[in-house]
Every structure is written in C-alpha cells, then in structure tokens.
C-alpha cells in the first residue's frame, strides 16, 4: 500500500520525468490481478492523504471505464483483464465504500458504479439495487443523495434507447425493487423539509434529495407510465405541486446572479416530468393539467431575467409551448385574458433573457399562439 501511495503521489508531481515514470508504473500495474482492489483499499484508507485518495479513485474509475466491458477487444481494453474473482469482490464492496468516503471521492466511486452497472445490471449484479435502496434509510443526507445520484445515473439509460422486450424486463425488475421505497422516501423527505425550513444546510440537502427523486421518477416513467405510479398519481402530484409553488428565502442568495439555486433546480426537474406527461397525453395526468399550467405560468411571472433563472424559465416555456401547440389542450388557452396574461407577463418580459437561450422556445410559442388564436395575436 505504501508503494502504491507513493506512485500515485508521483503522478501528481510537477516533475515531468517523475510523473511520466509513475504513470507507466500504474499502467503496467493495472494489468495485474488484484490491482483494482489495491486501489480501492487506498481509496478507503482514511489516514492516507486526501489528494492521493482522490487521484486513486479517479484512476480506478478510468480503469473500470476502459476494461470492465469484456465485449470490447483486448486492445481496446489496453490489454487489461479483470479477473472474475476481482469483479465479484469489487461489486460486493463498492456501494458500501461509496457511502463512507468524502464527497469528492464519492462522486468518482458513484460514476464507477454506473459504468459497471451499464454492463452488468441487473443480470450480473442483482444485489446492486437492493443495496442502494437499503441506504434510503440512512440518517446521513450525503449517503442518501449519493445513492440517489448513482441510481439516477444508472436509470438514465431508460431514456436513451428504443423500446424492446429486454429493456422492459430491466425496467420491470427495477420498478419491483424501487417504486415503493422511492415513493416512501419522497413523502418522508417532503415532511423532513418542512421540519428544517429554517436551517439552510439541512434544507438544501432535502431539496437535492427531492430533485434526485424527481429525476429518477422521470427515468422510471419515461417509456411508459407504470401501474404503480398511475395508482399513486394523486400522491406524487401533490408533492410536485407543493414544490412547484415553493419558496423559502432561507435558500435564496440575492447576491448570486448566475448559479441556479436549489429551489430552481428542483422546479426544473418537476417541469421536465410535466412536459413528458403532456407530450404523451397521459390520461391519469389530465385532471391535474389546468392547475399545473397555472402554477407554471405563475412561476414564470415570478422569475427575474437573471441567468440563474434561465433553466427553470426555459423548461416552463417548453411546457407551455407543448400545450399551446396541441389541439388536445386548446381549451386551456381559449380565453383572451389567459393569452393576454401569457404574452404580457411571460413572453414579453422574458424576451430580455439571452436570445440564444430562449429564442427557439418562445419563437415556437408565438407561432403556435398565432395558429391557435390568430385574431388575438394580431392585436398584441
């Protein structure tokens, strides 16, 4: 371990020759059985230098990315062969390791889990999801958010592929393990957020938990609306509604102009799900559309033109544009007063946002308004 720690330390040296030699040693060592386990032992060593532990985690992640997938040619894997024994040991311990290391290292281990899961989940890693779900009960928000980030990364692939029997098999397996505990965590976190409403540190963590849950929900319902969520639509929508209109000055930094705040991040994720439902004309969502549409444009009216609000503003624009552009939802916009409110309080004020950010969304929106309500738009 001391030798490996020294080698990794030398890869960070400003001395080019020393750094190059150390990198060669690591590259050669990566071909040896047990090397990845040694790296993980160093990552887990709390007494080791934090920078070296971080560098070890990065090298571990990169090696896994290069060599874990055995379907790739050996040359593409840089002649690295990870033994089955090492694979089993790594997967047995990786989730627990992720939950015990500092945040920067946690991010690297989380990414490594996602890389392995892309190849092995769920057939060759059937205890991954149960281990992640078990951590939902952790009292440490960094642990909960860590496993949620990992799950979000794993499930994101559900949105990137075409429907197939194989995909649905994986989604059904995933739903059977996560849908109930995830809904429980959603409700529990909303309650906890109320309890720490005056504590910015704790509340910020809860907002992130809610955002990650929302992102995971998006992936789980992307291909089709599962029966479980159809049955619990009112419960889920109740929480999403609460946070779409949520505001708390404790989490608002009036001096920050560029970086998106935790509330905006959560609201952007919520609107992403709303967009998905209206795009697919999900019947169970129909009763909620009028109320959510009002909430979305009220949210837009409340936002400034500062860059930190760009994401939630653009997401809201896209949601409204979908509704305006579809015959199915025309009744929502048939009142002249409604259209006047949208244009006067939303479209025109937000024209001052950077043109490259909003021109496409609002351009389409205005085109759709003209098509659906030509007489009104001509008089704007």
From TrEMBL:
Residues 22-100 form the Importin N-terminal domain. Keywords: Cytoplasm, Nucleus, Protein transport, Transport. GO terms for molecular function: nuclear export signal receptor activity; small GTPase binding. One of its GO terms (cellular component) is nuclear envelope. GO terms for biological process: protein export from nucleus; protein import into nucleus. Its main location: cytoplasm. The keyword Transferase does not apply. The keyword Signal does not apply. PROSITE patterns: IMPORTIN_B_NT. It is found in: Cytoplasm; Nucleus. This is Importin N-terminal domain-containing protein. It comes from Pseudo-nitzschia multistriata.
């Amino acid at each position: 371990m001391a030798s490996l720690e020294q080698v990794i330390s030398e890869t960070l040296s400003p001395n080019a020759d020393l750094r190059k030699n150390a990198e060669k040693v690591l590259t050669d060592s990566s071909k040896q059985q047990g090397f990845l386990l040694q790296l993980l032992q160093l990552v887990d060593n709390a007494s080791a230098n934090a920078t070296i532990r971080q560098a070890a985690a990065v090298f571990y992640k990169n090696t896994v990315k290069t060599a874990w997938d055995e379907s790739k040619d050996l040359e593409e894997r840089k002649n690295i062969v990870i033994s089955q024994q090492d694979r089993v040991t790594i997967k047995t311990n990786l989730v627990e390791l992720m939950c015990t290391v500092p945040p920067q290292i946690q991010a690297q281990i989380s990414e490594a889990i996602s890389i392995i899961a892309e190849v092995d989940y769920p057939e060759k890693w059937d205890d991954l999801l149960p281990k992640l779900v078990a951590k939902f009960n952790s009292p440490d928000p960094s642990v909960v958010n860590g496993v949620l980030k990992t799950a979000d990364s794993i499930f994101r692939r559900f949105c990137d592929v075409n429907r197939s029997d194989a995909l649905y098999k994986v989604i059904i397996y995933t739903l059977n393990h996560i849908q109930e505990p995830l809904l429980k965590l959603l409700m529990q976190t909303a309650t906890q957020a109320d309890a720490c409403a005056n504590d910015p540190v704790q509340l910020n963590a809860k907002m992130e938990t809610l955002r990650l849950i929302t992102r995971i929900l998006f992936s789980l319902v992307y291909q089709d609306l599962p029966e479980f969520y159809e049955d619990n639509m009112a419960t889920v929508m109740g929480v999403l509604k609460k946070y779409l209109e949520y505001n708390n000055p404790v989490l608002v930094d009036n001096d920050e102009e560029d970086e998106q705040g935790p509330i905006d991040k959560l609201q952007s994720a919520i609107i992403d799900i709303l967009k998905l439902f209206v795009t697919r004309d999900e019947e169970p969502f129909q009763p909620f559309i009028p109320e959510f549409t009002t909430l979305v444009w009220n949210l837009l009216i409340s936002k400034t033109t500062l860059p930190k609000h760009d994401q939630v503003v653009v997401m809201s624009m896209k949601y409204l544009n979908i509704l305006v552009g579809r015959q199915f939802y025309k009744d929502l916009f048939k009142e002249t007063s409604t259209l006047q409110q949208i244009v006067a309080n939303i479209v025109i004020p937000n024209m001052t946002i950077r043109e490259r950010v909003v021109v496409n969304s609002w351009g389409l929106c205005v085109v759709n308004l003209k098509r659906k309500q030509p007489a009104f738009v001509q008089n704007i």
